[in-house]
Amino acid sequence: MPFPVRLAGCAALLIVMGSTACSPIRTHQGYVIDKELVDAVQPGIDNRESVLQTLGRPTLTSQFNQGEWYYVSRESRNFGYSDPKVREQQTIRVRFDTAGNVTAVDRMGKELIASVDPYGKTTPTLGRKRSFFSDLFGNIGTVGAPGTGGGAPGGGQGQ
């Protein structure tokens, strides 16, 4: 192959590769929100079973009182190898009373997204700082000692 043809081929390849790195990558994560279905869920009328039939399984549920279901939908976009940026996020929160009836349906946007930045390579903790040797030898003499919770297998005290 002559030199100008190779050069033109390499230039074309670089242009194609460069243009694909700059094209946006759009992603969708989570629940696909249908406005009519969400509007169909009415407080005081619907219960857990009817919400499950209408909206399907929630993205996540409340961990403590089992009284809230969350449906999360997120649209992201990024260029090439950069970190994705959230363009739009909608969260539907369905709250239930103790009998399982819907008490409220709330809509929230991306303003509630928490940004968590790591702090160095370690997580700071409260309390004393321990060295490698205190971690390694710190339990010598305390295993099975009275008042330290050690003792017989199974967690009980020896008879």
Topology, please?
Blueprint: H1 3-21, E1 24-30, H2 35-40, H3 48-55, E2 60-61, E3 68-79, E4 85-96, E5 102-108, H4 132-137
Antiparallel strand pairs: 1-3, 2-3, 3-4, 4-5
Please state the second-level CATH architecture of the domain at 23-113.
2-Layer Sandwich
* Straight-line distance between termini: 91 Å
**Strand fraction band?**
25-35%
Uncertain regions spanning at least 5 consecutive residues: none
Summing up helix and strand content along with how strands pair, one would put the structural category as alpha+beta
**What is CATH's topology name of the domain at 23-113?**
Beta-lactamase Inhibitory Protein, Chain:B, domain 1
Task: Give the helices and strands as they follow along the chain.
Answer: HEHHEEEEH
Average pLDDT, all residues: 77
The amount of helix comes to 10-25%
At the first level of CATH, the class of the domain at 23-113 is Alpha Beta
How many beta-strand elements?
5
Organism: Sphingomonas gei
GO molecular function: protein-macromolecule adaptor activity
Pfam family, one: BamE
Keywords: Cell outer membrane, Membrane, Signal
